[in-house]
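Read as chain and fold; for instance:
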Amino acid sequence: MAPVQEKKLLGAAGAPDTLENTIEDEEGQNLWSSILSEVSTRSLSKLPSGKNILVFGEDGSGKTTIMAKLQGAEHNKNGRGLEFLYLIVHDEDRDDQTRCNVWILDGDLYHKGLLKFAASAESLTDTLAVFVADMSRPWTIMESIQKWASVLREHIDKLKILPEEMRRLEQELVKHFQEYVEPKEASQGSPQRRAPPVSGTEDEEVVLPLGENVLTHNLGIPVLVVCTKCDAVSVLEKEHDYREEHFDFIQSHIRRFCLQYGAALIYTSVKEEKNLDLLYKYIVHKMYDFQFTTPALVVEKDAVFIPSGWDNEKKIAILHENFTTVKPEDAFEDFIVKPPVRKLVHDKEVAAEDEQVFLMKQQSLLAKQPATPTRANDSPARAPTGSPRPSSRSGPANVASVSPMTAVKKPDPNMKGAAANEGVLANFFNSLLSKKTGSPGSPSAGGVQSSAKKAGQKPVLTDVQAELDRMTRKPDSISANDTSPTENED
């Protein structure tokens, strides 16, 4: 019996050692399995590479500038054809980063064939399209984004994509649009990867059907419309008399376009650094499924943000309430009219003409003009001035009330000395009489009229007439006397 008990005791004593070894082996296996699982998880959760952003827009719209700003570089050079740059995307939660390719197509349609190097059938699933519109020239917005959307549609149709694959891409885009949920405000920390969605019940997976005019132009890839240079809103108000109604009309048309393509809309300004951080966050959210917590922004007219899936026709109709002079269905180009172009006047150098040539031209012009009569011929009866007063003359006291002579004999131009003075004096008296007799309010005229009424006689010009006749006859006699001695002397 004793040996059996010893064996049992020995077995009981060796049992702890065996349990400890077993536990250590299990812990070692769990440690290695945890390490391997962590490595595999990290490899699976690494940021994917090979994502592409296609940027379209007119020349001068600021597409290269804004993408370089997102890159963190000051870009001052404009390329031609197809530009390339990349964005560094960080995942600070997992200490990972990757590069996102950015392809910027030239504003000239001649270069649209270069899209084959940026978007292929294999890379289309990892592509985001960005249409850039220039808010400083709002009359070009709709034409521009519609043109570039047609260019992208044409390029996608040329790609050799299987119909089943294209249908899958389109349905995926519809699903993302329908499953949009307004984000809740979260802590504004560093962007982190979104957790995988928790599977719910079948009722939660039911989505509402698309509304009217929604995703009617499904490209199969996410689209983003970026309006640049929104700081020009104040300039449009001052220089082009834009009102709130104009900006609401522009926004409503852009949002309708975004509904047709399932696109998001964001207003930016590099000059004022407005919404640039928001643009970057939304891009990495759409491309890498980063967490995004910013809701739609529609209050400020120069900082609008409409995420894909948020908008609908009823929300756009709110803008129509402010319309007074325009209707929502009016054509865009009929209300947002391009202002008249102001022609720049260039200061051209004017060469002075040679002085002699100029004078010869003037001489020839004067020679061609007909001769005009002089002022002396036009008024031959004009009397000379500056004659001295004669030594002696007699006249009645009521000279001022008498009308002038109807005809005065002209003095002989050959008369000399006193004879010429007498003729000039006669004309001088004639002018005085003509002035004073025409003014009915003069006191002398009133005195003569009253005296004539008292005497019962009519005003007579006999005395003055006789005096003037004497003065005109006297120069004739004097001139005759003056000519006779000269003849005798000869």
